[in-house]
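Hi there. Long-time user, first ticket. I'm pasting a complex I've been working with (about 593 residues overall). I'd like to know whether the download I got is complete or cut off, because the file seemed smaller than I expected. Thanks.
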Amino acid sequence: MGIEVVVEGLTKSFGEQRIWQDVTLTLPAGEVSVMLGPSGTGKTVFLKSLIGLLKPEEGRVLIDGVDMVNSPERDIYETRKLFGLMFQDGALFGSMSLYDNIAFPLREHTRKKESEIRRIVMERIEVVGLLGAEGKLPGEISGGMRKRAGLARALVLDPQIILCDEPDSGLDPVRTAYLSQLLIDLNARIDATMLIVTHNLDIAATVPDNMGMLFRRELVTFGPREVLLTSEEPVVAQFLGGRREGPIGMSEEKDAATLAAEAAAPRSATERGPREIVPQLEPSPGLPERRAVTRRRQRVMNMIDQVPPAARSAILRTYATSDSAPTLPLPGTAGSGTW
Amino acid sequence: MVTGVLRRTGRLFALAAEVGRAAFRRPFQFREFVEQFWFVASVTILPAALVSIPFGAVIALQVGSLTRQLGAQSFTGGASVLAVVQQASPLIVALLIAGAGGSAICADLGSRKIREELDAMEVMGVSPVQRLVVPRVLATMGVAVLLNGLVSVVGTLGGYFFNVVLQNGTPGAYLSSFSALAQLPDLYVGELKALVFGFIAGIVAAHRGLDPRGGPKGVGDAVNQSVVITFLLLFFVNMVMTAGYLQIVPPKGG
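Hi, the file is complete. Here it is re-exported in full:
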């Protein structure tokens, strides 16, 4: 079973520039979480802070008793073996073939025989659909393939915590859908705690158990997906609707004057109808149930009194209509905006 | 400004200390070490040999001319050999290792850093210092020591050739003055210098390579800086070591 990740009061700046402050959240063990946020709000910085690559000035990231911010380097290196991180562009070693790239963690951290390594590596290559390309160098394949190879490498040590940095960027919608399914299947198979950083609404709608959003140097909210998806918070509603009206501007934030003008203007056609209900992805046939589902249900039902009313009724509705996976409302049909 | 320089100096020393610690941590990256050793050796051997012949010749000619004016031709051999073994050879080696090997190491590490390969390595729980830097620094040190032997021999032979053939020195006087003035500690200190210079070249190259600023251009700047910083440090350390040696080891001729 995956490991719980506890983040307490995390604050990170680069020089004078505050990236985000006082981020506090808990990634529940074995569940899939998504961190949303407009481009440039420090989502990748957050991921790198979780794993100890960047050192926030304040706060703690507790994993199995090790603080990834302040513990000695040696403990951090040990704890990192529990992680699999999928980088935005794969971050493959340019001088090694895909096969050697994926075999790298096994060769560094285990004493397995070459035949055993070959079996594991080929299995992972097949999972991410790269059979036949294992002899190629990272420079010779497309960005999407590099990404999938990066995922295969992150998976090879059977990590307990999987972090994905924008798994969809550079992928077409079909591949993104396959990847979403792959992530859910993965969770069913190894029951790892997962955090996906993205701004893809399809992934956000179908994959996670929990969602959070970063905006304006703060964690807007983090909790069961229903909380975010039913949220009336202007930032969240704007982001999920993919609209231009709202606090998010082209350059990160709008100034007060623009916002006021917008509020005065009549509502445009971009206002969506009622949100659709889309079920969360199920593991592919033949795979075991996701064990996180039962745990999550219990956890969410225990905190049902603390969530906002809209989210509460959404949760109760989804758990009433189905006894397995919860369903969720989706922002209105995307695409048909004012373009 | 001042704090920036001090901070970078501090990081350089911290990296040196970390490399020293990581060098003894298992598993030792033997394969990487051999590959890097071979690489550094292959780019430095030929230039080193080619540079050392004229360098030995220049010293022989200069010292030969000076000693003739002083009427001490018979000591030409000793003096020129000492200059080659103690000073010229370690410096030639270090300049070539920094210029040919160190710059390549810096560029390699720098481009890996900006492509996030080093981050990926750290994420997988593998220390880039132990996995990449330690084998490279050991390789530059090892090559420096061995290359120093080669350059000393070639430089001495070059000096001998120019002194005996071109300046009509006598072979016997050259050799006897050699053994009259030179002693084994001269060779030891030459090798020790080469070892230290190789360490400096490797550490500076790695230090600049691990921290490039701002993309591909930053890698180019880092390579540039690594060579310049190495040269500055080399001459300074050389001065300190030479002064120390002259104080500690009594001269044979005295």
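A couple of notes from our side: The CA atoms of residues 61 and 201 of chain B lie 30 Å apart. Chain B touches chain A through 13 residues (CB under 8 Å).
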